[in-house]
Structures are given as C-alpha cells and as structure tokens.
Amino acid sequence: MRYLARRVIAAAVLVAVVSSGALLLTRLAPGDFASDLFGAGASAATIARERARYGLDRSPVSQYLDWLGRAARLDFGVSLVYHRPVAELVAQRAANTGLLALVALVFATLLGLPAGIITGSRRRGLLPTILRGLSLVLLSLPSLITSLVLVLVAARTQWFPTGGMQSAGAWDAGVFAGLADLARHLPLPALAIALPLSAMIERVQSQSMGDALEMPFTLSTLARGVPRSRLVWRDALRPAIGPVAAMYGFVLGSLLSGSFVVEVVTSWPGLGRLMYDALRARDLYLVAGCAAAGSLFLAVGTLLSDLLQAWADPRLRRDEAGGTSGGSA
Amino acid sequence: MRSLGAALFALVLLAALAAPVLAPNDPGQTFRAYLYAPPMRPRLVTADGRWQRPFVHPLRLVSRLEQRYEEDVSQAVPLTFFSRGKLARLADESRGPWLPLGADREGRDLLARLLFGARTSLGVATLATLAALLLGVLAGGVAGYRGGIVDEGIMRVAEFVLVLPAVYVVLALRAALPLVLPSWAVFSLMAAIFALVGWPWVARAVRAVVAVERTREYAAAAVSLGAGHARVLFGHLLPACRGQIGAQAILLLPSFILAEATLSYVGLGFPDTVPSWGSMLHEASNVNAMADFPWTLAPAAAIFAVTLAANLLVEKPDRAAW
Fold first, then answer.
1. How crowded is residue B138: how many other Cβ atoms within 10 Å of its Cβ?
2. Considering CB atoms only, which of B262, B310, B322 is closest to A144?
C-alpha cells in the first residue's frame, strides 16, 4: 500500500513537471499566439490589445503561478485557438489516442508474443527462421514508414479508408453503423503502430523464453514426463513473461511517440495531432493540457506494467513487502 | 549477419559520398516537362527483341491531366559510362533527361535528391550521434566514477529524459524556436536537439560499466601510482566501455535519421529546397499524389535500409542449440 502511494506521488510529480515545462517552454519561446495570429503586418497596438485579451502581457511567472493554482483545482484554462475548455478538448482527443493505442497494443501482443515463444523455444526449422527474418525486417520499419506504406496500399486497393476516424454522417445511421464505420477506420493506423512493436515484443519474448528454458526446472519438468509443448506454452511461459511485462512500461512511451506520426499520416484525430497543432499555434494552455494528459498516460502505463511484473514474478512482491527497493525493473 | 549489416552501411555511406558522380542530374534542377515522371529503367533488349548495349526509352506524356507518361519504345537513347564526371548518363541529352527513379512534384530527379539527401540526413544524424556520445560519456563517466550524490543526480535527470516520449520533446523544442531559419542553423539545431534527447542512453550504458570497472585492481593500481581523476576515468576506465559506446552509437544513428525524417515530414525540419530524406517524404503527405506516384516514397526505402543495417550490426549471435 505504501508502495502504491509512493508511485502515485511520483506520477503526480511527473505530470506536474512535464506540463509546467511544456507551458513555460511555449511561453518563453520567441513569438506568441497574438503575434503569430496577426503576422508581421499588424500594428503594435493591435498585437498589444490581443495580448492583453489573452492574458499574454503578464509576466511569465505570474501567469505560470496563476495557471498552476487553477490546474491544481483541475481547471486547465481555455484554448486560445478553439475557445473551448482545454480539459474538454484534451479528454476527447486522449480517448481517441487511447483507443488507437489499446488496439495497437492488442495487435502487437497477438502477433509478437506467440512468434517470440516459437522463436525462443526452437532453434532450427522453417517457421522460426521465417519468423526471425520477418521480425528483423519489421524491427527496421519505423511507424512513419509502415503508416505511409499502409496508406499507399489502402489508397491503391481501396480495402481500407486512407485516413480519418469516421466517415461523414456514419453515426446518423445508428450506433451499430457508427461502430462498424469506426472498425473500418481503426485497423490501418493500429497496424501501423503494431507492426514494429510486435517485432520488439517478439525479440524480448524470444530472449526470455530461451533463458527460461535453460533453467534447471525445465529439465526436471521434462524428466517428470511433461510433454514439451506443454512445458513451453505453460510451465516456462510464466517465468518468461516477466521481461515482456517490464517492456510494456517502456512500450507505452513508444506507443505515444509512434502514435504521433501515425496520427499525422492517417489524420487520426488524437492527442498527438492536437499537441502538434497547439505547439504550432503557440496555444500554451492547450500545450500544457496535452502534456499533462500524455504524462498521465505514461505514468498509469508504467504502474500497470510494474503490477503485471509483480504478478509474473512473485520474488518482486516479496521485496516490496520487505521494504527494500521497490519497482526494481 | 553482422557482415551483411556492415556491407549495407558501407553501401549507403559510399552512395552518399559519391552522390555527384552517381546522380545523373543536379538535385535542384527542375524539369518542367517531367513533373511526377515515372522511373526510367535502363534496358538491354529493344522493343523488337534485339540485344543492345544499355539504353533507356525516352518518356512521352500521355495525359497532362493525370500526369501520366509512357515509354516511347520506338526510340532508344544509349547510356554512356564514365564520361564528364558521371558514372552513367545519356549519350544524347537533347532528347529529355534521364530520371532513373522518376521525378517529384516539381520535376526534380528523385535519385539525385535521394543521394544528396543522404548527405543531409546522414550528416545530421552523425553530428547528433557524436554530440550525444560526448554528452553521454561525460555524464555517465562522471556519474559512475564519483558515485554518491553526483551519480544519483545525473542518473535521475537521465531517467526523466528517458521516460518522456522522445518525439514530443523534439517537437516541443523545435516548435519553441523560430520556424524559418537558414539551413545551416536548422542543421545544427536539429543535431543539438537530438543529442539532448539521446545522451541518457549512452550515459546509462557507460555508467554501468564504469561503476563496475572502478572497483577493479587495475583502477586501484592506477590511482596508487598517482594518476589523477581525469586520467583514471578517461585513460583507464573508458576504454572498457568501447563496446557499449559503439553499440549505442549504432542504435542512435538510425533513430536520429528517423527523427529528422519525422520533423521534416510534419514541416518542422528542412525546407523543400534542401534535399533530405525527411523533406522528400514531406511530399508524401499528399495521399493522392503518393498513391498515384509511389516512387516518391523512395526515401522510406533508404531509411529502412539504414535501420536494417544497424539492427543487423547489433544482432546477437544465436545461442547454442537448446
């Protein structure tokens, strides 16, 4: 319990530091929303008036403290571009990114985990060789490239829509039509993120599977007459899954990073695009809000990954109960 | 596998260095009559089935509206090799340019841009890798050598940077700076930003090795012979990290190439006038043009090649059969 409390505090610090950093960076950078909005042609008086209107004329420190005070009460301000509360905008886009990331993670796990178990438990044979080669190729295809290639394939074959999250008016025909439409738009961006990710999962799973099979207990299990397939898919799997679970915390960061390019390439209306647009427009409260949402996402993911690890490896749990260094990943 | 990776790396490097010789045209030259022209393959067999020395069929515009071209098989323009400082070029250049990989939106030779773009992309990535190595070796070396509160402080910062999604840090830093800058400034700025994001990987690896090596007898011997801190650290302990540093460099290089491509793709990197793999991919952000003229995706293949080479180089040898 104390461990959990410490993790929550660490997460809160991360969110506060990242969003504050994003806000101050945007505020202190040369140029601001008002000067960008009206361009070089505007008179100094116009720009000054607009600055005052948006509160950009105050000192960065007083503005920051004001924002911090309100953010602590979960009021993240109003977007300068959209004239809507930041919390509302961010929540909607974060849900879109969350959906995309979740589906991508499921795809990647479904592809990568079995592949890793196969390549980790067998050295020779046609299937492991093919899988290993495939994984090496996918590992070298960043999501920028996979998304571009998938969009190209989609555009030429018309199998999938090339971008966006929904067709116009799809939800008018009812919830089921809307969901069906969403299901048609999801696979392309999700696969673009999942393909390189699945190769990463395959590599780690293969390595740890090989390690697990070299442990003494596998020999004793075999000696008891347990068939090999059951040994690989059941007895060795649980100790072997630890490193993969540890990886999920790291994967989350790369999910966020990977989803940015994919969101831009496939015009998925997610957090990444919103952050990018906000940065370009110097919409500082929106930038801070996006940063807060992103780091929250990250912190929750890391925590879940640590819990998953503790489930897979009881030794980690005992360490925490004993009060020694927790969260040793 | 490793030699395959090294060979691929060497090939890309050689292509970048020999760009002016390999590229038949200037990367900035626009052929107004050949917008989005398709690749022109060198051929050996003519339309009526006769073998001939290498030649190309000149292109003929079929539809201006669809920007569609066709090879004029009734004509054959032979290639000449090693003439006027080019590896290969058309013997008769009055019958249109040779575009081995086709042309882009403005009718520029894609092969030339790919080759000269390799110089930009590899250049930024190499500079950034060197800077990240310098920062990382210094930080990691000092952290591992001094230990205690210095170690704690440096590694906390490193871990914080590692946890952040790198793409957003790079985006935020780049967006905070003026958008339009001279290209040399974009070049060094990008390298600096990438190094700032990449150093913790190196620092972590170096720290781990130095912290262990510091307790070895040879380090104690060096200290007892009167070697100063700097001499022990850089002269005695760092050589033990060579393998780690090399592996980190090999992994950082393709990720920086990708970072350049990503930044330029979204329009925060090099402008269109500077050929780089990212600024070339920026054109692919027009989905319809990309679908009709897929050869504009050529830089994606180049990025893949470099990343594959790096992954092959760091690939661990297979363990003994189980």
1. 17
2. B262
